[in-house]
Write a structure and sequence with these properties.
It is a single chain. The chain is of the alpha/beta class. The protein has twelve helices and nine strands. A five-stranded mixed β-sheet has the order 3-2-1-4-5. The chain has a two-stranded antiparallel sheet with strand order 6-9. Strands 7-8 form a two-stranded antiparallel sheet. The chain starts with a strand and ends in a 12-residue tail after the last helix.
Length: 353
Amino acid sequence: MSDDKYIAFDVHQETTVISVLNAAGREVKTAILPTQAQPLIAFLEGLRGTLHLTLEEGTYAAWLYDLLQGRVGKLIVCDPRHNALLKEGNKTDAGDARKLAELLRAGMLRAVYHGSRSLRGLHELAHAYEALREDTTRVMNRIKAFYRSRGIGCAGRGVYRKGQRASWLERLPAGASRLRAQLLHEELDQVGSLRRKARSALLAEARKHTVAARLRQIPGMGPLRVALLMAHVQTPHRFRSRTSFWTYVGLGVVYRGSSEYRLAAGRAVRRPQALQPRGLNPNHRPELKEIFKSAALSAIRQAGPFKNYYDPRLQQGVDPAILRVTVARKLAALTLSLWKKGGHYRVPGPQQA
């Protein structure tokens, strides 16, 4: 019998609950250790055989991945949304660790990609920028909600502009209401300043990578979109084909069908139109889908092959939403190809557009 060990960490803020299974699936060791580097490393060093380790994606996942990679034969940071077995039965830390180890042993875990350290800085800055972008949107929504709750219409973006701020504040009664609005406007100024700072740092970090200049040649793929794309994807070689990349991004077409075959002369024959498209795959990276959908909007507005593709079909009555998704898929495929194979973007001829 092999000497493989299947180890699962159920990680929490103060403690980590550990379950170890042998190759036969029997639990041979358990432990509850502090969520600290030295105790966890010492525990792994005390085990014999080929070690397979898993833990769920979460707050501590990136730190533990960097800490433990190379200390075990195989390390999987898994997606907790797909661990359906953990939802069955009683919910305890020890039970979760045991079930996670069983999924690891059965090969039923879906790994979450953790990139190389060379792009860790870009990844951190992308998260900082995106968090501040979300904070900006949140404060803007609060400002509009505040004015509307006082019966003051505030359509458009004028309510956010500094030059018009005094006129908006004057519509409020003096006192606490006006002070509250003023504080919201000041909060928007501060968050906006931090967002611009994070954006500059992100773009500066992206320029350190030579591939960024080549990806910016693609229509619609501006510097910010390229920087965010590189931060989240990190390497194109994770994807064997454009189909897998489309699925990861959220541009993969989902098909549904039933009773696909019929009998003809004693043989099973597929029915025509047995499978029908039912939209795009729901399990994806929303931030990447937004990058390519917004890039598609930019590409069809500027003169070039994508506008030449979009306009005639729009005039023929094709649904514009479907056309935009198609352009986004073309951009994603082009980006993956250029990123993997190198070279530079060349504007295709009329027959290729």
